[in-house]
Amino acid sequence: MQSNELAFGEILFATCGSNQSSVYSFSFQRFLEENSILLSDIPLDRQVLPMNHQGNRLASLSTYKELVQTEAKKKRRQYVSGLVYYADQAPSRATGNNGWKQVVYQPDTEDEWHKQSLFRIETSDGLILVQFCKQDVHEDIREGVNYLLSSHSLVRLDNEGHEDGTMVPAGIRLDPRKSACVTYVNTRNKDITPVQATKIEKKYMIAFHELNTNPSCDPAKRDTLFRRDYNDSLNTLKISNNVFKLPYPDDNTKEKVQVFPTYSATDSLKNSLHVDVEDFERSCAVFYQHQKEGEQYLVFPKYGLAVQCASSPVMISWDARKQQHCTLRVSNGIRSLCRCPRNKTSKRRRNQKRFAKQPKNKRLKVGDTVVVQSHKTRDNLRAVDKAYATEIYGESQCYVQRPAKINAIKGDSITITYTTKKRSLGEITLLSSMVLPLEEGT
What we know:
This protein folds into 2 domains: 28-339, Double-stranded beta-helix, CATH 3.60.130; 358-437, SH3 type barrels. By secondary structure, it is of the alpha+beta class. Residues 1-29, 217-223 and 377-396 have low confidence and may be disordered. 22% of the residues lie in helices and 29% in strands. It is globular and about 75 Å long.
């Protein structure tokens, strides 16, 4: 198999979450037959499509097509606001798959736990990985999600309320008003101080890191699908300098672990079919019941796939940039934590790394489009941003980057004009150390 992806045979099945791992040896062929699934694209007229548009059931497939053609093209995420699934469109063990080609249910029997707790699903747009776990999610993840849902600003769904539930962002983002990387902060819970918030966020980030890199399988061999998937994405972020560096709790050593910088938390989410074009890497989420109730499905109608999220925690990894997806909610109660690093923040962080190196020969000339970096000291930042800048990023400054065009070069001074859409700032003369060639794709 000539690919960077994990080969079919590079897997060890175990009873996830049991006190004593029971390892089952399978041949490559048996694994291929029982636990690896190949799904082809399904024609639109055979897909299970969301038929609830702003509270009204669509009359036919032609109505759906017309709606998508007129609305989805207007949005980069390729979605129609307020177009969601009815609960009765979900599959069920009792009544059947309800039109879905492939349904991945949580294991019910011990035999299913031994043989069908981990799946590798191949589609035309990449892999989808699914792993069910017997153990509950770590208490640090539960506490972190509880904090985020009660403290961070809500992501707006459609105004009419047909998409509902709760979604909040966490970690870093690019603030378009400042053209700078800043952190999502506590805006709603006055009982939690910035110091307490930083401690909670560090703990859930490390717990989520551990969940991905040390799944509850045989401790003698942890090189699983999810660990490989997680490390590949993390390594891509390291190249862009877009990672958090955190010390392990209660660890006296100075060694730090590198984790993902941006997350989202959800509660009982029901949203429209979409892709996340602004993501920089693959997404991975853990879904779990909040208080022993709730059921929903993460669905991919293009491939006829529905993955059950119910009483057993389930980890799902997919390429949200390409694989159109949404949640089909049957009942309230499912929460999730998802890693979702953003493309724009990775570009800014990569440029910061380039500025730190300062190449000797920049080969700048009049007329070039460049990126200009200025900075603010810690004294000009909010307390919570200071904490992130120094403790998590290991930096003491907040960098601002904007595109510009060179008008003149004289010695070590460069005269530029910013090319932003805002009001013209006129010509500005800067030191050459504040200017770099615009990297491709920036």
